[in-house]
């Protein structure tokens, strides 16, 4: 495979590194023609990704309906081929970069933080369990199925293992060999993850619609909504009747949210790698902040306790909601469940909005500088937060229009209106708080004050006034020493070394409490819609206003973005917590 010297940019990379060794603090000079081709290489990989994404989206959306002559095994075949190509490319990447010593000249310290990679592994484990359940489900009646339906989960499991290992060890890489091949391979990997995500979201949405409408619609409409998961000519023969088959079927549907989040997490990390291809990092300005994750230090435990209360209460509300809505046919039970759900979310969203406002106020008094260095990871985090929030914004505004324009209005409509308004406010205030936190410099230890404090606290008794009495006319305690290089110390510096850390610790503690409370609250707000509690389908106001076809389509399109927003907010808040 070589080291990629045939690539027209590899020679440029080697020449730039040679200049780096002599001038470590000067950015490399890039010829204009090479910079143009860098943009051309990126554009080619983007066009490849766009065409593959459109093809996958067309097949996935067409395969969701039985009346269209595109079956789900056509979708599975395309996804299987894409995953196999990505697996081959990842192996090529790992082998080529390991054999070439100059393949990875620098690493992006901001890319692929440990909590993001840890979350990726967690979702990968659940995705593997889902694939096992899928294999068991399809194996229950393999005689009447296409072979691709059993091959697909096997290939997906291999794909998850290989990609997780690849992202764990290579997420920070700034590659400088096979640049155009690497860009295309990374874009193919990103597109494959998005295609798997689209397939999972479509499958889950159709399954939810099937579960909600199976009891209330005719067989013809039910079959129209049913995804073509089995060949129509043998649907009766392939029915899942055994108990073990039902366990496998229900199990892998319950694990779909983890697979959805895994695909999105992997897509975000692959995009950052794509941005870092051919990138040179000036380590003089792009220094690495070694921050320690200390969960139970420098905290009052208020945010953790309140967050755990919200989390446990939300789990209880979710269980009661599912039992009363899905197991009971009485309208009164359904109204009680909706009332309970809306009240809990109104309280939770109201507290989160107030806390975010308080955190933004605290940032106004934070003396830390803003981090203005180039950071593709942070840019992507901000873009994903703002973009994913649009899904929940859309649902909320559709609900507001339906509630205001509908008559008559009851208590549930008032709660729904309040819930929609608070959802918009909470997303807005939380985005402001997170973006401010991500753009702050991490806390720096003031070595000057540390030295003063060691000298100061080394004494048994300290009398600042007595120290100031011994100050010469020049106003300094110690004269500047040219031999030792020590700086002059002023009495005001000693006083400030006592008072300043307390103020800084007070602000940082509150920011940590706010971050931890928001983190736990976002977890329950992710779990609730991801695992079944979706009042948008149970509240009749929007269904009657927009119709049985338009409103479910709106929710199915926008809700996955809202679910992803919560999980991405959890990762961003964890970073804000550590940076505080």
Distance between the termini: 45 Å
> Helix/strand/pairing class, anyone?
mainly alpha
State the shape.
Answer: globular
Gyration radius, in Å: 28 Å
User: Oligomerization state of this entry?
Assistant: single chain
Number of domains: 2
Order of helices and strands: HHHEHHEHHHHHHHHHHHHHH
Percent strand: under 5%
Family: Belongs to the otopetrin family.
Keywords: Cell membrane, Hydrogen ion transport, Ion channel, Ion transport, Membrane, Transmembrane, Transmembrane helix, Transport
InterPro entries: Otopetrin (IPR004878)
Subcellular location: Cell membrane
Report on the architecture of this protein.
It is found in: Cell membrane. It is a multi-pass membrane protein. InterPro entries: Otopetrin. This protein has a two-stranded antiparallel ribbon with strand order 1-2. It is mainly α and 580 residues long. Helix 3 (72-99) packs antiparallel against helix 6 (179-213), helix 10 (302-327) runs antiparallel to helix 11 and helix 14 crosses helix 16. Helices cover 71% and strands 1% of the residues.
In short:
The protein is mostly helical and 580 residues long. The protein folds into 2 domains: 39-224 and 240-280, no CATH class; 294-442 and 504-579, no CATH class.
What does the secondary structure layout of this molecule look like, with pairings?
Blueprint lengths: L9 H13 L9 H31 L9 H28 L4 E4 L6 H26 L8 H23 L2 E3 L3 H35 L5 H7 L17 H12 L1 H21 L25 H26 L3 H34 L11 H30 L5 H28 L8 H11 L6 H6 L21 H40 L4 H4 L1 H7 L3 H30 L1
Helix pairs in contact: 2-6, 3-5, 3-6, 4-5, 4-8, 4-9, 5-9, 6-9, 10-11, 10-16, 11-13, 11-16, 12-13, 12-18, 12-19, 13-19, 14-16, 16-19
């Amino acid at each position: 495979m070589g080291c990629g010297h045939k690539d027209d940019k590899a020679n440029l990379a080697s020449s730039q590194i040679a200049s780096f060794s002599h001038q470590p603090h000067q950015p490399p000079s890039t010829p204009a023609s090479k910079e143009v081709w860098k943009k051309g290489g990126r554009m080619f990989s983007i066009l490849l990704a766009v065409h593959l994404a459109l093809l996958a989206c067309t097949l996935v959306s067409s395969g969701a309906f039985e009346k269209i002559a595109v079956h789900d095994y056509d979708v599975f075949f395309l996804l299987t081929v894409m995953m196999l190509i990505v697996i081959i490319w990842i192996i090529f990447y790992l082998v080529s970069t390991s054999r070439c010593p100059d393949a990875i000249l620098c690493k992006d310290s901001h890319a692929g933080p440990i909590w993001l990679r840890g979350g990726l592994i967690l979702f990968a484990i659940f995705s593997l369990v889902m694939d096992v359940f899928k294999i068991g489900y399809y194996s229950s009646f393999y005689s009447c199925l296409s072979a691709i339906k059993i091959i697909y989960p096997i290939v997906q499991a291999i794909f998850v293992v290989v990609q997780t290992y690849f992202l764990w060890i290579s997420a920070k890489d700034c590659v400088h060999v096979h640049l155009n091949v690497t860009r295309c391979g990374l874009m193919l990997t990103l597109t494959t993850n998005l295609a798997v995500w689209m397939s999972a979201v479509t499958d889950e949405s159709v399954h939810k619609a099937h579960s909600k409408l199976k009891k209330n619609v005719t067989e013809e409409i039910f079959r129209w909504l049913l995804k073509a998961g089995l060949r129509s000519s043998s649907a009766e023969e392939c029915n899942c009747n055994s108990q073990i088959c039902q366990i496998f079927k229900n199990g892998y549907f319950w694990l779909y949210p983890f697979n959805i989040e895994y695909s999105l997490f992997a897509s975000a990390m692959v995009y950052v790698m794509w941005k870092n291809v051919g990138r040179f990092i000036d380590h003089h300005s792009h220094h690495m902040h070694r921050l320690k994750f200390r969960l139970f230090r420098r905290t009052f435990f208020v945010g953790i306790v309140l967050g755990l209360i919200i989390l446990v209460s939300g789990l209880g509300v979710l269980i009661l909601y599912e039992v009363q809505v899905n197991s009971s046919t009485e309208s009164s039970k359904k109204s009680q469940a909706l009332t309970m759900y809306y009240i809990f979310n109104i309280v939770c969203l109201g507290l989160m909005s107030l806390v975010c406002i308080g955190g933004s106020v605290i940032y106004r008094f934070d003396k830390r500088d803003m981090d203005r260095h180039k950071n593709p990871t942070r840019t992507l985090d901000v873009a994903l937060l703002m973009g994913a929030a649009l899904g929940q914004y859309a649902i909320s505004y559709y609900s507001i229009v339906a509630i205001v324009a509908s008559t008559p209005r009851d208590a549930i409509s008032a709660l729904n209106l309040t819930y929609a308004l608070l959802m918009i406010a909470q997303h807005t205030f939380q985005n402001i708080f997170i973006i401010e936190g991500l753009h702050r410099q991490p806390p720096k230890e003031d070595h000057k004050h540390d030295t003063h404090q060691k000298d100061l606290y080394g004494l048994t008794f300290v009398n600042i006034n007595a120290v100031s009495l011994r100050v010469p006319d020049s106003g300094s305690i110690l004269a500047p020493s040219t031999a030792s290089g020590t700086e002059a110390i002023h009495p005001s510096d000693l006083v400030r070394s006592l008072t300043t850390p307390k103020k800084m610790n007070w602000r940082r503690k509150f920011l940590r409490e706010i971050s931890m409370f928001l983190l736990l609250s976002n977890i329950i707000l992710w779990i609730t819609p991801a695992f079944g509690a979706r009042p948008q389908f149970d509240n009749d106001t929007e269904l009657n206003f927009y119709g049985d076809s338009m409103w479910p389509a709106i929710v199915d399109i926008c809700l996955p973005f809202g679910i992803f927003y919560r999980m991405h907010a959890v990762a961003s808040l964890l970073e804000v917590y550590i940076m505080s």
